[in-house]
Design goal:
mainly alpha, two-stranded antiparallel sheet, globular, transport, two-stranded antiparallel ribbon, single chain
């Protein structure tokens, strides 16, 4: 019984945390604030789904925030140049996919460490974004109805990014639990050498894992750009840490092979509730960074204890 309860520790942690916050500030449980938490969480959640795939293989992706920023800037530029919004959307997602494939190629084919590869990509794309935008925000003149709604629209009084987040969590769960690709992803994280010897194309799976992570980061960039109606050159800064924290808090092992997208959803909500609670309690942004770091450390310690 205790073992079953412990296996649901992300859900238990979220419930306890939400109760504490609601006691400290009754405004937390209002309808408007809950929708606000979910909308703010949606971008990190979308990135965290891709990060879950990567971490399940035993890898890491530090470039997600930079991919978000660069792809968001590209989307804004394409719209301002008068291109069709649907075409601009497809090109932006394809660009994120290419960046992810590039990371996957270096990790799988060139046998480089994921930490180093994605750190290089992160640094390069962050600089490329500043060059592309000339260090200034790119304000969208007229993005059309599709672009306006994807980040700032509502359906039945619920922000559309929340629907996108839920749909992607369902798709991610199905991908991992009910497809060969999902089983191969778990197998690589559990024992990559044995997976390779069993005849599975490990390199191909890894490239697609990083590719999907890059594409989801690009989608998050489009949503953020739509919500602000401009592309910020510093957008996505630190988002990789939030995504990693959400994945680890959700019970996915940094060693790979263990974890679920449903856990990541809970982890992302914990991060979102934490940020919202600190804002409601008027905690300085400087202290918020410190508290978030402590939460990540606790998550890693719990992960290590679970592995033992």
């Amino acid at each position: 019984m205790l073992k079953k309860i412990w296996s649901n520790k992300p859900l238990i942690g979220l419930i306890i945390f939400a109760v504490i916050v609601s006691v400290l500030n009754p405004r937390f449980l209002t309808h408007a604030n809950i929708l606000n938490v979910l909308r703010q969480t949606s971008i990190n959640s979308i990135i965290a789904i891709g990060m879950t795939l990567v971490i399940l293989t035993g890898g890491i992706d530090l470039s997600v925030g930079s991919i978000l920023a660069f792809c968001g800037a590209v989307m804004a530029s394409l719209l301002n140049a008068g291109h069709n919004p649907i075409l601009a959307f497809i090109v932006t997602l394809a660009l994120g996919l290419v960046f992810g494939f590039f990371n996957g190629f270096l990790v799988s084919k060139m046998k480089l460490q994921a930490f180093i590869v994605t750190l290089v990509t992160m640094t390069f794309l962050r600089g490329a974004t500043l060059v592309f935008t000339e260090g200034k925000p790119i304000t969208v003149d007229d993005g059309g109805l599709l672009f306006e709604n994807i980040g700032g629209g509502y359906l039945f009084d619920i922000p559309i990014p929340i629907y996108i987040m839920i749909a992607l969590f369902v798709a991610g769960h199905y991908l991992l639990m009910h497809t060969k690709f999902g089983r191969y992803t778990y197998a690589i994280g559990g024992n990559e050498e044995a997976t390779k010897l069993s005849g599975i194309n490990v390199d191909k799976v890894k490239m697609w894992v990083y590719g999907l992570c890059g594409m989801l980061s690009a989608l998050a960039g489009v949503i953020l750009t739509s919500r602000l109606y401009s592309a910020q050159p510093t957008a996505g800064s630190g988002y990789e840490l939030d995504a990693i924290a959400a994945v680890v808090l959700g019970g996915t092992s940094l060693a790979g092979g263990v974890g679920r997208v449903t856990g990541t959803a809970l982890g992302a909500l914990i991060i979102g509730v934490l940020g919202n609670a600190l804002n409601l309690l008027n905690v300085s942004s400087y202290y918020q960074m410190m508290i978030k770091a402590i939460v990540i450390l606790i998550a890693v310690l719990i992960d290590r204890k679970s592995n033992k």
